[in-house]
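User: Sequence recovery, please. Input:
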């Protein structure tokens, strides 16, 4: 019951660990300051949005940064109708004398908090970039502090995430479908009209209003994982406003939902095999003495936990590790090879009958505190956005067929991912978007980064987007984990920093 949940975490772990909450204006902030910028006109065809494009942000001190709210229309087709407030944070350039402008960032998701991500500015961009740019983040509509969508109670979300993700027979398939449909109904009840207006296109339009409110003629942008999709849609809508844009860990906009599910299944299969090789090389792998043995042992473990969940300690809200939670825990370690040792130890513990450590990894994945409180709403809003962006089948039998066929290419992760997007097939609101090739003709050069063994956004997707864009440069990082910039490679970092600081476009095909 998960839709592309694996694409959600680019940067989120960093933000959750290193960022503190933003104190918004009127809730304890001090030193309100309305920074005057030259009013900008809306793009052609959007003259009715003039009042939004000319707004001045009222910045307020919030724990070493500046916070504000941006007013945007609920429905862009009715600019004179209801509005919503988007939470924005600015971490000023470290060296004002070197300031170039504003760098807007998005960590992924959909559902990752750009506010939390920007608070980790010292870790998400290079030092020179940090010196020269105000790092600006915003929670996209429906996310975090921006009219958040909250479909389920924490207890109900625990049940949803922990339920069987790979139904084995007709009865389990129908139960899965009921839960999937129930999520959408709950979202419709709690979110109201907003649920139909949280698409990526809506967020991209908000981002252009933010660009204008920051006083920037062009958008300088860093998007990771789903943030690349947001950036690409922005470039499609506003090519003339594209400045220095970096897209790291690409979700290509022309992918169908089925292609995304299968692509991620294959990506996680590839990444898990790399972890299995590491496990064997360490010499104390609890699952086997070869990569194939480890992979089969992992699948056997998940089948066993499906039937007999493991006890775990320290959290009365979730006293047992189910297949659903175990899958999330294993997936969490695939995002960063620094977690591989943790997963080896957690699996050793789990095979001895204790699911505590594997559940700790799952908590990290779900942005969940050990006591059962969720720090954000990423695990809910990810559906709300994706279900508007891409059409899905609601045919349970077709879903079962896709899951069965996926085993040939991704025996460990195929069924999990193929079933994951059924909630969108049963969503109460029809999708407003769909697969689309984007050229962004007329945009400034866009830098695309792909990691060869990225689990969540397979390298092939970065190549695919590079081939579509009219003017782009591809950096290839030969490595493991999800995304590359400031995460694991000096070659990538230097190329991106030079682009942001000097406008030097990396050579297309640069390999790091």
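Assistant: Recovered sequence (512 residues):
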């Amino acid at each position: 019951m998960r839709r592309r949940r694996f694409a959600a975490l680019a940067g989120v772990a960093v933000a959750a660990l290193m960022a503190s909450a933003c104190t918004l204006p009127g809730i304890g902030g001090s030193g309100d300051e309305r920074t005057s910028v030259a009013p900008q006109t809306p793009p052609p065809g959007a003259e009715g949005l003039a009042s939004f494009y000319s707004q001045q942000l009222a910045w307020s001190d919030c724990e070493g940064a500046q916070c504000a709210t941006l007013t945007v229309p609920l429905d862009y087709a009715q600019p004179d109708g209801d509005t919503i407030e988007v939470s924005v944070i600015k971490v000023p350039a470290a060296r004002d004398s070197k300031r170039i402008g504003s760098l807007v960032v998005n960590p992924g998701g959909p559902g990752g908090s750009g506010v939390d991500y920007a608070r980790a500015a010292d870790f998400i961009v290079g030092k020179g970039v940090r010196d020269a740019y105000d790092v600006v983040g915003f929670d996209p509509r429906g996310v975090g502090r921006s009219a958040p969508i909250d479909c389920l109670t924490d207890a109900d979300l625990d049940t949803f995430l922990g339920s069987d993700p790979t139904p084995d027979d007709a009865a389990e398939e129908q139960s899965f479908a009921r839960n999937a449909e129930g999520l959408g109904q709950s979202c419709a009840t709690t979110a109201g009209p907003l649920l139909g207006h949280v698409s990526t296109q809506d967020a991209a339009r908000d981002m252009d209003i933010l660009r204008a409110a920051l006083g920037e003629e062009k958008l300088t942008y860093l998007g990771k994982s789903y943030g690349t999709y947001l950036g690409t849609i922005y470039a499609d809508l506003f090519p003339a406003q594209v400045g220095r844009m970096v897209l790291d860990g690409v979700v290509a906009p022309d992918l169908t939902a089925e292609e995304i599910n299968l692509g991620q299944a294959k990506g996680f299969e590839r990444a898990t095999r790399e972890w299995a090789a590491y496990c064997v090389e360490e010499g104390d792998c609890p699952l086997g003495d070869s990569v194939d043995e480890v992979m089969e042992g992992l699948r056997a473990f998940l089948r066993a936990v499906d039937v007999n969940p493991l006890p775990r300690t320290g959290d009365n809200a979730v006293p047992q590790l189910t297949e659903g939670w175990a899958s999330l825990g294993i997936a969490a370690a695939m995002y960063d090879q620094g977690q591989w040792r943790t997963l080896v130890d957690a699996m050793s513990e789990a095979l001895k009958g204790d699911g505590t450590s594997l559940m700790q990894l799952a908590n990290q994945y779900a942005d969940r505190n050990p006591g059962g409180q969720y720090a954000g709403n990423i695990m809910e809003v990810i559906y709300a956005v994706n279900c508007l962006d891409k059409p899905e089948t609601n045919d349970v039998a077709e879903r079962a067929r896709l899951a069965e066929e996926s085993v040939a290419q991704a025996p460990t992760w195929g069924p999990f991912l193929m079933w994951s997007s059924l909630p969108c097939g049963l969503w109460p609101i029809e999708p407003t978007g769909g697969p689309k090739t984007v050229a962004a003709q007329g945009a400034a050069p866009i830098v695309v980064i792909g990691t060869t063994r990225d689990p969540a956004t397979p390298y092939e997707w970065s190549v695919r987007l590079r081939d579509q864009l009219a003017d782009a440069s591809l950096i290839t990082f030969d490595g493991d984990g999800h995304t590359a910039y400031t995460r694991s490679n000096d070659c990538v970092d230097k190329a991106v920093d030079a682009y942001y600081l000097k406008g030097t476009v990396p050579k297309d095909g640069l390999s790091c």
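The first helix runs from residue 12 to 18.
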